[in-house]
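Onboarding guide, step 5: your first structure request.
Type a short instruction followed by the sequence, for example:

Predict the 3D structure of this protein.
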Amino acid sequence: MPWASLMTHHSQRPISLLRSIFLLLIAASLSACGGIFTRDTAEPPAPLPAFEAEVQPRVAWNRSAGAGTGGQFLRLSPYVTDAQIVVADARGMVSAFSRDDGASLWQVRLDLPLTGGVNGGSDVVIVGSGFGEAIALNLSDGGEIWRRRLSSEVMAISAVSQGAVVVRTNDGRLHALDARTGEVGWTAGRTTPALSLRGSGTPLMLSGRVAAGFDNGRLVMFGLGRGNALWEAVISTPSGRSELERMADVDGAMVLADGVLYAAGYQGQVVALSVSDGRTLWQRDLSSYQGVAVAGDMLFTTDSFGHVWALDRRNGATLWQQDQLRLRGVTVPVVLGGYVVVGDYQGYLHWLSPEDGALSGRVQGDRNGIAGEMRVVDGTVYAYGQGGQLVAVNAPDLP
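The system replies with structure tokens like these:
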């Protein structure tokens, strides 16, 4: 399923298929709901666009790494170090591979469904379960270090930083854990609406602080030591008569660059905030549940229709928009080899020109699609697909 799913927070599980279809049919008649729901509306995903290739991305290696998302809407993203890449599937298998050639290094089967991660740092990798457990494994061999039961299904896990890891659970709470022992330092959160998009953005670790988005449309900066709220900013304002119209999640990737925090909200804005006090430097009405990426003076985002945008990150002005991938479940962009790269629901990785957004190259990874964030390290992009295929693609030679 290449598009966002809905979540009811009373049951802490995805709503039933019949109710999902009913809500999506309603969404088709509501202009405020954007294009996040695709295959259940009258408009199908755009066909794979034809173009004249300028570059030829090269698949370095491709490995089978478990069951992927197991047919669920999960953002299971790879964790990459200097030498390894670690992925987890929905059935509890965690696998580590060599970054150089994809050789298998270790594999661990955990006896529970996984819904969050992978993230890590300081020789530790951390995953989260649908049963509300955060689990830390040794990076070298996958041995379990600690396991901590939290308040609800684990949706996202921060990087390990300053001796801590921050876990976001489905009930709208953040849990700051000691990365060595799993002991809970503090818990904080915000009120969660009855209906929201399934998924949560990864908490962003900063020096002495952690930023997190919530399903009520707010982004909050917490002190890492005590969990006290330092400032709070509105990214999306809930409005409308129905729960569906009032969805205002801040779910996507955030970026800190030069003292400015960039974020996006569903049915809200793309914003630039002062990291010191949360003051809004600029904002654009642009709905996104995927988040943003930054390179140089440019900010890239994928909106709720699957259109890819380039904005001037200094003032939010539009530089270009690529709409040929409309409703194809397009991921948050990454930047590689001078090009902007996005994945889609059929597993294609599309190379876009940073100058005008024109399609410039394409290669296919997991045919079941890509839902999690892709990672770029040293001229290679790593993408973990919903069918469990892990692909490493090198930057193409420039013409």
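Each response can be followed by summary notes, for example: The radius of gyration is 19 Å.
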